[in-house]
UniProtKB/TrEMBL annotation, chain A:
Keywords assigned: Membrane, Transmembrane, Transmembrane helix
Gene3D superfamilies cross-referenced by the UniProt entry: c-terminal domain of poly(a) binding protein
Residue ranges crossing the lipid bilayer per the database entry: 93-114, 134-158, 178-198, 204-221
Source species: Methanosarcina barkeri str. Wiesmoor
Protein name listed in UniProt: Integral membrane protein
From TrEMBL, chain B:
Domain Transcription regulator PadR N-terminal: 10-81
Domain of life: Archaea
Signal peptide: none
Protein name, UniProt field: Transcriptional regulator, PadR family
Originating species: Methanosarcina barkeri str. Wiesmoor
UniProt xrefs under PANTHER family: DNA-BINDING PROTEIN YIZB-RELATED, PADR-FAMILY TRANSCRIPTIONAL REGULATOR
Pfam families: PadR
Length: 231, 102
């Protein structure tokens, strides 16, 4: 059964299509900013619908979005967020668990699909050789998992922090950009070296079907948790 | 303080009749509140709704998206009454201090 939030989301996606290109860009930025705020998904969609209604009505009247909201979209969104109930500790923990369940199941599928053992299994099945249904999990796989998850959270945090900022704040000096790029490149290089150095060691092997069932279980748990979080 | 005054002015407009954001901003502008757009009052409407001083109801509109209509709640009426009393006291005190209307 579709929840109220999902219905609102679909309605809003339809309304989005009626925005002008310029308004669509601003609305997308504001919605992204709201998505990263500590408010429920239901409130996000309610606010999104209210804003869409406001912007579409302004469009019909031939008014600019700047007349409606002023150019300080960040302050406007911050005021909106402050006026809404904030997620409590339990809700934030459930959100985190949900994100981890979904990302682990996706990374799990990717690992099974691209693993050396799967390729061998397919090759052996085609050529009629003996089949080995075990895949190995190495230290490198676990390290990669942690790095991917941490990087994902970091990217979302950085995007959220920089969304809706006035243009001039994006203009960092060349030296600062060079230092940041250098630090990121150096960090990535160090990570790859560590993975290459200690990553090959196999931690354990697991039956491919058991791994699939485990991943499916994680995905089902994510879906169930979503039903619990989103009403 | 100014935000609190504006919130109560919005409550006053809503107490007259069920209305929606754009109409509220137009009413406020009519009474001399310049630069009050629908966007300015939207966060205040959300706050009033969160504090159960107003309630919202969606209705279909000719433009397509559902329009949010607001009406005052009994708690909102009480709040408005308290504000009017406080405002009269404050108004009197400020007038006394500045000798306005002597």
């Amino acid at each position: 059964m579709k929840t109220e939030t999902k219905i609102l989301n679909q309605e809003n996606n339809e309304l989005d299509k009626r925005l002008t290109e310029k308004n669509n860009v601003i609305m997308t930025d504001m919605v992204c900013y709201l998505r990263l705020a500590n408010i429920s998904e239901h409130d996000q969609e309610v606010v999104r619908q209210d804003l869409l209604q406001m912007v579409l009505s302004a469009q019909e009247r031939g008014e600019d979005i700047k007349t409606l909201i002023s150019e300080d979209y960040k302050s406007f969104c911050d005021e909106v967020i402050a006026a809404l109930p904030q997620k409590n500790h339990k809700e934030r923990v459930l959100d985190l668990i949900d994100t981890l369940l979904l990302s682990t199941s996706i990374l799990g599928v990717i690992h099974i699909v691209i693993s050396k053992e799967t390729m061998e299994l397919i090759y052996n099945a085609v050529t009629g050789q003996q089949l080995n249904f075990h895949i190995s999990i190495s230290v490198g796989d676990l390290l990669s998992y942690v790095i991917i998850i941490a990087t994902g959270f970091l990217i979302v945090h950085v995007i959220g922090k920089n969304l809706l900022k006035p243009e001039k704040k994006h203009n960092q000096s060349k030296i600062k950009k060079f230092i940041i790029c250098g630090a990121i490149s150096g960090g990535l290089m160090a990570v790859f070296l560590i993975i290459a150095w200690v990553g090959r060691q196999t931690l354990f092997t697991v039956n491919i079907f058991a791994a699939c069932v485990f991943i499916l279980g994680l995905y089902i748990a994510h879906k169930l948790l979503q039903e619990l979080i989103i009403t | 303080m100014l935000k609190g005054i504006l919130e109560n002015c919005i409550l006053k407009v809503i107490s007259g009749d069920e209305t929606y954001g754009y109409e509220i901003s137009q009413q406020l502008q009519k009474y001399g509140f310049s630069d009050i757009s629908e966007g300015t009052i939207y966060p205040l409407l959300l706050r009033l709704e969160k504090n159960n001083l107003i309630k919202a109801k969606y209705r279909e509109s000719a433009l397509g998206p559902k329009r949010k209509y607001f009406s005052i709640t009994p708690a909102g009426e009480k709040e408005l009454e308290a504000f009017i009393n406080n405002w009269q006291e404050l108004n009197h005190a400020v007038n006394q201090l500045f000798h306005i209307g002597e």
